[in-house]
């Protein structure tokens, strides 16, 4: 994923892959994914999204604190990201649309699309 990827219609990235890298490395990974996909292709990423500062729900705050400690203890280059930041990274990697699907307690599936959908 750091150099090239085989061609595919869909690529799946599991939890904490992008979370564990700095923005520059994430951009490289996302660009390589983009280059491996056809025009109708999509990248699916499962990650925990950091809450944005406009949301004061206590459970989201606790979730963010737990993952902040995870990042500090296990990976010096990783970081928490909000939905907005992941969308910015995806667009920098060439993707034109990002969709977010909440799964559970901060965990989301993000769908990065090469081509804008009609809906």
Question: How is this structure best described in words?
Answer:
The protein has one domain: 3-Layer(aba) Sandwich (Rossmann fold). The chain contains 3 helices and 4 strands. It is an alpha+beta fold. The longest helix has 17 residues, at 58-74. 20% of the residues are buried. Helix content is 34%, strand content 22%. It has a 4-stranded mixed β-sheet with strand order 1-2-4-3, with helices on one face.
Topology:
Blueprint: E1 10-13, H1 23-36, E2 42-48, H2 58-74, H3 83-92, E3 97-104, E4 107-113
Parallel strand pairs: 1-2
Antiparallel strand pairs: 2-4, 3-4
GO molecular function: O-methyltransferase activity
Protein name: O-methyltransferase C-terminal domain-containing protein
InterPro entries: COMT-like, COMT_C, SAM-dependent_MTases_sf
Overview in brief:
The protein has a single domain, classed as Rossmann fold (3-Layer(aba) Sandwich).
Give short descriptive properties of this protein.
119 residues, Rossmann fold, single chain, O-methyltransferase activity, 22% strand, transferase, COMT_C, 4 strands
Shape: globular
What's the total number of strands?
A: 4
What gap, in angstroms, lies between the N and C termini? 30 Å
Reading off the top of the CATH hierarchy, the class is best stated as Alpha Beta
Protein name: O-methyltransferase C-terminal domain-containing protein
GO molecular function, one term: O-methyltransferase activity
Keywords: Methyltransferase, S-adenosyl-L-methionine, Transferase
Domain O-methyltransferase C-terminal: 1-95
């Amino acid at each position: 994923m750091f150099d090239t990827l085989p061609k595919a219609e869909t690529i799946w990235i599991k939890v904490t892959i992008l979370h564990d890298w700095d923005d520059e490395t994430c951009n490289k990974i996302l660009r390589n994914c983009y280059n491996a996909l056809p025009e109708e292709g999509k990248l699916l990423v499962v990650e925990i999204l950091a809450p944005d500062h406009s949301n004061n729900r206590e459970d989201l705050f606790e979730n963010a604190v737990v993952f902040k400690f995870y990042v500090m203890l296990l990976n010096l280059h990783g970081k928490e990201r909000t939905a907005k930041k992941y969308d910015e990274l995806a667009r920098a990697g060439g993707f034109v649309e990002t969709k977010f699907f909440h799964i559970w307690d901060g965990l989301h599936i993000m769908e990065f699309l090469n081509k804008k959908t009609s809906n």
